[in-house]
Amino acid sequence: MLIAFHKPYGVLSQFTPDHPGQRTLAEFGFPKDVFPIGRLDQDSEGLLLLGNERAVVSRLLDPVHGHPRTYQVQVEGLAAPESVSRLSAGGLDLKGHRTLPCSARLLDPAPLHPPRDPPVRYRKSVPDCWLELTLTEGKNRQVRRMTAAVGHPTLRLIRVAIGKLTLAPLEAGTWRELDPEARRFLGVR
């Protein structure tokens, strides 16, 4: 079984809390034997896969297969073309790890995502913009660290695709089992 889930903001990518009061995957009614494939941080949203097929999990997580993951990121400030070029060129030093080249672009107009609960902080004197990044690597909090490294701290991060499998039309907190066609979008059978 392979499941696509739209993980809401504030939910851990695990079934048990680290601390009392934390929201976890346990509240979303998943079948008993599935587990998260990869992760999204508690303060990130978007497409998370869950499954129970060891071979598929191994294929999706093994860096040698380099599955692209696409994120839409609301950042502080207006990103100049030079910042976007630095993101896409790779080589950013993230405390001992140099990023690989990736796809990065400014999203104009901004994507139409429902408001987040709680809302993203808004400052009248500081503009923001949206970027789209597609990476084939996934270090801890990498997208946030990359945007900060080019001077644009992340305000909101949404994973919108893994391979050719997209988040749409799932709404936050909903999930669906992947049919054979959707599994092909991931490159698995």
Topology:
Blueprint: E1 2-7, E2 35-37, E3 45-51, H1 54-61, E4 69-76, H2 81-89, E5 103-107, E6 128-135, H3 142-149, E7 154-162, E8 165-166, E9 175-177, H4 180-186
Parallel strand pairs: 3-7
Antiparallel strand pairs: 1-3, 1-9, 2-3, 4-6, 4-7, 5-6, 7-8
Structure, explained:
The protein is an alpha+beta fold and 189 residues long. The protein has helices at residues 54-61, 81-89, 142-149, 180-186; strands spanning 2-7, 35-37, 45-51, 69-76, 103-107, 128-135, 154-162, 165-166, 175-177. Strands 1, 2, 3, 4, 5, 6, 7, 8 and 9 form a nine-stranded mixed beta sheet that branches.
Summary, kept brief:
The protein has 189 residues and is α+β, with helices and mostly antiparallel strands. The protein has helices spanning 54-61, 81-89, 142-149, 180-186; strands spanning 2-7, 35-37, 45-51, 69-76, 103-107, 128-135, 154-162, 165-166, 175-177.
Indicate the mean pLDDT: 92
The gross shape turns out to be globular
Q: Quaternary state, please?
A: single chain
The radius of gyration over CA amounts to: 17 Å
Query: What is the strand tally?
Result: 9
Q: Report the sheet-strand fraction.
A: 25-35%
Query: What is the N-to-C order of secondary-structure elements (H for helix, E for strand)?
Result: EEEHEHEEHEEEH
Alpha carbon gap, first and last residue? 11 Å
Largest sheet: 9 strands, mixed
Question: Would you tell me the structural class of the helices and strands?
Answer: alpha+beta
Query: Which residues sit in consecutive blocks of at least 5 with pLDDT less than 50?
Result: none
